[in-house]
């Protein structure tokens, strides 16, 4: 299949996340840094036009980075597009942050707002509430059923936030109730930057679900290799050049050694993530045990 040309210098990143900040400062800190990263890489942010919580943090990060370096990254065109409905637009008092979001698209319905947000090239899901969960489910269904184009989904798994959802989604696929979705899971800002850089270099508009799924899964599969190899001045762009050179001109032994190294890094990352899930499951078990003990005591107290 011929790869479609794409203006990779201005990839559009849609971020979906909470309008609240959560109860751990790390959520807002990490998403603010994500905003700075989006601007630093020359991407554009498409988001749901908010000045609070996770969404406000990512918008503030984009604007802070852009205002500091806009002569280097951009022309005078704002790097943010706010997409909302009239009802939501009227809810927000226009503070200093929202006044700087000069490009606002107002849709007639929430459904059309979701569709407009999905026009972006890369979709990032950050921690949030039921609204974020709704957008995740909507985008998965619409993409799976072919109503909208297949594209990379990044799950920004800050503090293990999406642990249970990822397990649930895997169980749906395993049980035959859903097709696999091309999720790229990152656990921190460093991993997110590597994923963004990989997508910037290898992003293609794909003509089919199969091709798009392959491209996204390739990034997800290779990501641990780049995370492991990032030392000092060795960076994504250099590693990709080395990998491409080996695949094009390397010996069979060099090619196999590279594949083995990529596979090893992937397996190590999966093992580490599984241990983290086990630790979280252990804490969940402890919480359930504590609740059962309280219920049992309450049961005995009331003579049931």
Written account of the structure:
The chain is an alpha/beta fold. Helices cover about 60% and strands about 10% of the residues. A 7-stranded parallel sheet has the order 4-3-2-1-5-6-7. Helix 1 (about 25-40) runs parallel beside helix 8 (about 190-200), helix 8 packs across helix 9 (about 210-230) and helix 9 packs across helix 11 (about 250-300).
Layout of strands and helices, then pairs:
Blueprint: E1 12-16, H1 25-40, E2 44-47, H2 53-73, E3 80-85, H3 86-91, H4 96-100, E4 104-107, H5 110-117, E5 122-125, H6 130-144, E6 153-156, H7 163-174, E7 183-186, H8 189-202, H9 209-229, H10 236-249, H11 252-301
Parallel strand pairs: 1-2, 1-5, 2-3, 3-4, 5-6, 6-7
Helix pairs in contact: 1-2, 1-8, 8-9, 9-11
Distance between the termini: 69 Å
Task: Give the topology string: H per helix, E per strand.
Answer: EHEHEHHEHEHEHEHHHH
Please work out how many helical segments DSSP would assign: 11
Query: Largest sheet, order of strands side by side?
Result: 4-3-2-1-5-6-7
Radius of gyration: 21 Å
Estimate what percentage of residues fall within beta strands. Answer: 5-15%
The best one-word shape is globular
Beta strands, count? 7
pLDDT under 50 segments (min length 5)?
A: 1-7
Q: Which class do the helix and strand fractions yield?
A: alpha/beta
Helix content bin: 55-70%
Largest sheet: 7 strands, parallel
Can you give the mean pLDDT?
Answer: 84
């Amino acid at each position: 299949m011929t790869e479609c040309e794409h203006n990779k210098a201005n990839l559009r990143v849609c971020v979906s996340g909470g309008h609240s900040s959560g109860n751990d400062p790390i959520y807002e800190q990490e998403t603010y840094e994500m905003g700075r990263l989006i601007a630093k890489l020359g991407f554009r942010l498409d988001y749901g036009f908010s000045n609070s919580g996770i969404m406000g943090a990512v918008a503030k990060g984009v604007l802070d980075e852009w205002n500091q370096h806009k002569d280097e990254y951009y022309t005078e065109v704002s790097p943010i597009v706010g997409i909302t409905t009239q009802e939501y637009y009227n809810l927000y008092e226009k503070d200093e942050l929202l006044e700087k979001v000069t490009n606002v698209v107002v849709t007639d319905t929430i459904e059309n707002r979701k569709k407009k947000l999905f026009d972006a090239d890369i979709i990032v899901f950050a921690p949030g509430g039921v609204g974020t969960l709704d957008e995740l489910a909507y985008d998965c269904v619409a993409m799976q059923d072919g109503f909208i184009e297949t594209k990379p989904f990044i799950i920004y798994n800050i503090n293990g936030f999406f642990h249970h959802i990822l397990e649930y989604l895997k169980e749906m696929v395993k049980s035959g109730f859903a097709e696999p979705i091309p999720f790229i899971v990152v656990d921190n800002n460093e991993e997110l930057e590597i994923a963004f850089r990989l997508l910037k270099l290898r992003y293609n508009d794909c003509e089919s679900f199969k091709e798009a799924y392959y491209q996204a899964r390739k990034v997800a599969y290779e990501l641990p290799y780049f995370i492991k190899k990032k030392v000092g001045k060795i960076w994504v762009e250099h590693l990709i050049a080395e990998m491409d050179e080996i695949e094009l001109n390397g010996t069979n032994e060099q090619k196999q050694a590279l594949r083995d190294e990529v596979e090893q890094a992937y397996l190590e990352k999966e093992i580490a993530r599984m241990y983290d899930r086990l630790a979280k499951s252990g804490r969940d078990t402890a919480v359930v045990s504590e609740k059962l003990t309280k219920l049992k005591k309450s049961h005995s107290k009331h003579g049931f």
